[in-house]
Amino acid sequence: MSAGSRRTGATSAGRRLVRVASPLAALGIWQLLTSYDVDLWLRFAQFPTVVEVASALGDRIGTEAYWQDLGHSLRRIAVGFLLAAVLGVAAGTAVARSRWAADILGPLVEVVRPIPAIALVPVAILLLPTNEQGIVFITCAAALFPVLVSTRHAVRALNPVWEEAVLTLGGSRARVLFSVVLPGALPGIFGGLSVGIGVSWICVISAEMISGEYGVGYRTWQDYTVVDYPGVFVGMATIGALGWLTSTAVETLGRRVTAWLPRPTAGVTAVGPARAASTPASLASASASVPVSAVPRPEKEPVP
Amino acid sequence: MSTVSPSVVSAKPSAPTPPTASAGAELALHGVRLGHPDGVAVPGPVDLRIAPGELLTVVGPSGCGKTTLLRTLAGLLPPLEGRVTQDGKPIRRPDADRALVFQHDALLPWRSVRANVELPLAIRRVPRAERRRSAGEWLERVGLGGHARKLPHQLSGGQRQRVQLARALAARPRAVLMDEPFGALDAHTRAGMQDLLVEILRGTGATVVFVTHDVDEAIHLGDRVALFATGDVLDVPHPRVRDARQAPDTAALRRRVLDSL
């Protein structure tokens, strides 16, 4: 046991080094390509340098508008994602456990699921009184299906012996639900939540770009329309950092509530969220690691 | 937690030795045809009466449908035909009166050993402090007092079965249905578990139906042995006496059971 943990300790130190070095190297290459205006089929002449982006970020961080945008986006994500989590777990469990729910909800889910959440913008505009609610609706719709589908699978995959054991101990249906089904499905549910939070970011940013007032996505689009490229990259870095932060939070919570899982299985759950974390950033075209690590650096610079 | 004073509470479920008045349940099959949920019939006993407080072992080869019998008695599975009763009343659904001990892996893996044993008490709405104390006592009785905080996967197979025993008995069921509970254990552990079972059941008064494919186990543990395929029920001359293995009447019974398989 102790030998094993020492070995993983050594590897994790090495891995940590690689993890820090990789984004730093990416930033270095970015800076070199852009400061020398390299033109090798890919054209870096108009591309902002790391330093320009960093100083733009430094300027923005001092303004109230930046934090206001951040707060708006975070609130939309929080409300939309939490709604999706509750609805997705409830509907997924119902579909997996009840033939009626499966017959009624199943076809609806399968028809609506392939529609990209961002394509629901017209629906949101028609249905909901305010833009704000529309954005939350789209965020929720985006996260709903990953959560629902993975909950459904996780509930169906439960060992039936657990339920029978609780039944023969005198447990009611509610007891089975709360003592067997939900705790047993949690590892799978958190897989869905990790994917869901990533997709939520993609959609909240896209929705803000289309119809928002305030918000990181709105600001990023605004900067693009006025050809403020460093500002666009600040937006991307912010989105990347926020996405990374929220999916880390989901992942940490997931690991904590599924601490009972035997070791090797716990390692598998750690893989999903890491991929989900990169999704919102990859939408913003740049590689995920670049905007994420770009954030802490400029904070050292003096802010006027 | 602190609302109930422990001295008052400790009276009832704490002392597992004195049998309660309504201890054992009488279980019976009346003209039953056992069957899987998909409707496939399982050949097995048609009529069977298990007396209150009796330990009936059921022998049959692996895969012959013994589990189906237990699940039917538990109320998890309706019979294709006939009636299954407890004390004359039909069994329609599972009940805390009839605990089922599974072959393996029936502990909830996300609950600690203690929380697993507390589960039936929680279902019966026993106050938390009392639950904790009672579960601790049961774990002591099965020799796992020091493992209360562990998770099931951190225990050996034999230890997990002991936890299952403690969990099944903690809420003082009137019947315990055991599905080859020691089937996956090595011979040495198995003998120890049989002794533990005998000791732990003493004084509970519960009716026990113990299914096994091991003839020696069946003859050692049972008051009577039921042959699954024919439905014949044979009296065991020296129930739960280890030294009686070589006795002529035990040997005769053993031969008879083996012939029937």
TrEMBL record, chain A:
Family annotation (InterPro entries): MetI-like (IPR000515), MetI-like_sf (IPR035906)
Sorted UniProt keywords: Cell membrane, Membrane, Transmembrane, Transmembrane helix, Transport
Annotated TM spans: 16-33, 77-96, 108-128, 134-155, 176-207, 227-246
Record's compositionally biased regions (Low complexity): 280-296
Location of the protein in the cell: Cell membrane
Pfam families: BPD_transp_1
UniProt domain ABC transmembrane type-1: residue ranges: 70-254
Domain of life of the source: Bacteria
Topology class, membrane: Multi-pass membrane protein
Region (Disordered): 280-304
Family membership: Belongs to the binding-protein-dependent transport system permease family.
Protein name: ABC transporter permease
Taxonomic lineage of the native organism: Bacteria, Bacillati, Actinomycetota, Actinomycetes, Kitasatosporales
From TrEMBL, chain B:
UniProt-listed Pfam families: ABC_tran
Residues covered by region (Disordered): 1-22
InterPro entries from the UniProt entry: AAA+_ATPase, ABC_transporter-like_ATP-bd, ABC_transporter-like_CS, ABC_transporter_ATP-bind, P-loop_NTPase
GO molecular function: ATP binding
UniProt keyword annotation of ATP-binding present: yes
Taxonomic path: Bacteria, Bacillati, Actinomycetota, Actinomycetes, Kitasatosporales
All residue ranges annotated as the ABC transporter domain in the record: 27-255
UniProt superkingdom: Bacteria
Keywords: ATP-binding, Nucleotide-binding, Transport
Protein name: ABC transporter ATP-binding protein
SUPFAM superfamilies, alphabetized: P-loop containing nucleoside triphosphate hydrolases
PROSITE patterns, per the entry: ABC_TRANSPORTER_1, ABC_TRANSPORTER_2
